[in-house]
Amino acid sequence: MNSNARSIETTWRARILFILATIGAMVGSGSIWRFPRLVAMYGGAAFLIPYSIAVFTVAIPLLIAEGIIGRETRCGVVHGFAKYAGREYAWLGAWIMWVNTAIMFYYSVVCGWSLAYFIYGLSGVYGVYKPGMGIRLWSSFIGSVWQPILFTAVVWLLTWIVLVKGTRGIEHTVRVMVPSIFIILALVLIRAITMKGSEVGLEYMFRPEIHRLTNAEVWLQAYSQVLWSTGAGWGIFLTYCSYLRKDDDINLNAAIAALGVSSAAVLAGPAVITTVAVTAPLIGIDPLRVYAEGNVGLTFIWLTELFPLIPFGAFIGTLFFLALFFAAFTSQIAIAEVPIKVLTDFGISRRRAATYVCIAGMVLALPAAISIDWLNNQDWVWGVGLLLNTLMLSIVMVRTGLERNRHVANRGSDIVIGRWWNAMVGFVAPLSVAMVLTWWIVQSISWYPDWWNPLKVFSTGTALLQWSLAMSVIYVVVNRVLASRLSCEKPQR
């Protein structure tokens, strides 16, 4: 690595910047648009109980596992798995990279939507209520084709500008955007809870429907949300930890990052839920209908329609979509950094790696930008496929020795983890993930009688087919084509 490359991406300059980067990576759109509706639909405060348990039993232990591999090898997911566990495990790391990258293609489109709706806010769209405005604006935007493509291109240009500078670019971005997310969400929350009738919305959020805890679906939804929102298994925390120093703390950093994500979600929850609960009845709509409309329906259709009914709604709506864009973009750069780091591990310069990934990302994002069905299909296939990543992490931790890895994690840490971590990573996390994965597959089978049909958007068949093809190609390429280029000298422990 030449001196210029070192100046670009050696280590994080400060611990707080690493923490901001990891929180930014995890506080994605899911924390703002998916978490609130799940809370409203699955028992309010009762939902927070399984959610919190999942954070401590699955998310934090798995993030620590990622941190061990990243910090000890200073490599991305492919070389990291090969170097830490052995060359035969490199394909597992490549699978994690691919799932992350496949998500990246359509996630950049969603990030572009957020930017577009922020621009709409600046133009005053949310200032005057017009019945049906939400669906008309969405149909006009998504139906134009060129607008989603344009804003996706802007996202990829911004991504390149940030990531071509390595950790320095990430640091400059997150030190502004991440604090802004929390400040904006706090402002939106204050406006929501000070509206007349806000107690109705707060009741949706904080009513403790404890009887819901006997419903297995509540627990499965909570665990799913935690796995998707905290970044456990994405390879992002592993990649960011590869820029840590030898004795930097991974235990505390993992805990802070996971709890930071939860804090953002808890801010967004009452803000969104209360806004909908107060304004939806004004136009004769049941709030529960709005919450059940899905992520896109809640955010880009209904909230757009309801913001004009709020005092200072134009200002609040614009701020909300700015926070959503900041959350999505800080996740976008983290997702893109995973394949970039893998390419630099193979000796490609940072500039070229960032350029290759961003160009490929833009080109392969086009189908999702053009077709909402394709975006939904990819979100289903790789969103659920992401659950497999956590199983692969557990395999590597067990293979290399849970007790030994626990001691590695404790080196340099302000928080010493006990043997409970062994049980979480070796048993609880994989069992929980296996149950959630099975549940999602069973759900999809119940949705479609012809569940085997790979042409259905949300079928089990399309997921199994795409997983099988990807896994086969990855296994052959890594084990036969790239095997000789993988550095497998194991780190000293």
Compose a concise summary of this entry.
It is built from 21 helices and no strands.
What does this molecule look like?
One of its GO terms (cellular component) is membrane. The chain crosses the membrane at residues 12-33, 39-64, 105-129, 141-164, 176-194, 226-244, 256-283, 309-333, 353-374, 380-399, 420-442, 462-483. With 493 residues, this protein is mostly helical. The protein has a single domain, classed as Amino acid/polyamine transporter I. Helix content is 76%, strand content 0%. It has 21 helices and no strands. α4 packs antiparallel against α13 and α8 (146-163) crosses α16 (313-345). The two termini are 24 Å apart.
Tell me the layout of helices and strands.
Blueprint: H1 3-9, H2 15-26, H3 29-41, H4 45-73, H5 77-85, H6 90-122, H7 133-143, H8 146-163, H9 167-193, H10 198-206, H11 216-229, H12 236-241, H13 251-279, H14 287-291, H15 294-306, H16 313-345, H17 350-370, H18 372-400, H19 402-410, H20 420-447, H21 460-481
Membrane topology: Multi-pass membrane protein
Transmembrane segments: 12-33, 39-64, 105-129, 141-164, 176-194, 226-244, 256-283, 309-333, 353-374, 380-399, 420-442, 462-483
Keywords: Membrane, Transmembrane, Transmembrane helix, Transport
Radius of gyration: 22 Å
Q: Report the sheet with the most strands, covering strand number, pairing sense and barrel closure.
A: none
The total tally of domains equals 1
- The pLDDT mean sits at 91
- Our measurement of the CA-to-CA distance between the termini, rounded to an integer number of angstroms, reads 24 Å
User: DSSP strand (E) fraction?
Assistant: under 5%
SSE arrangement, N to C = HHHHHHHHHHHHHHHHHHHHH
Provide the helix percentage: over 70%
Q: Uncertain spans, ≥5 residues at pLDDT below 50?
A: 1-7
- How many H/I helices? 21
**Proper CATH architecture:** Up-down Bundle
Tell me the CATH topology: Amino acid/polyamine transporter I
Please identify the structural class as seen in this structure. mainly alpha
The CATH top-level class label:
Mainly Alpha
C-alpha geometry:
globular
Count of extended strands: 0
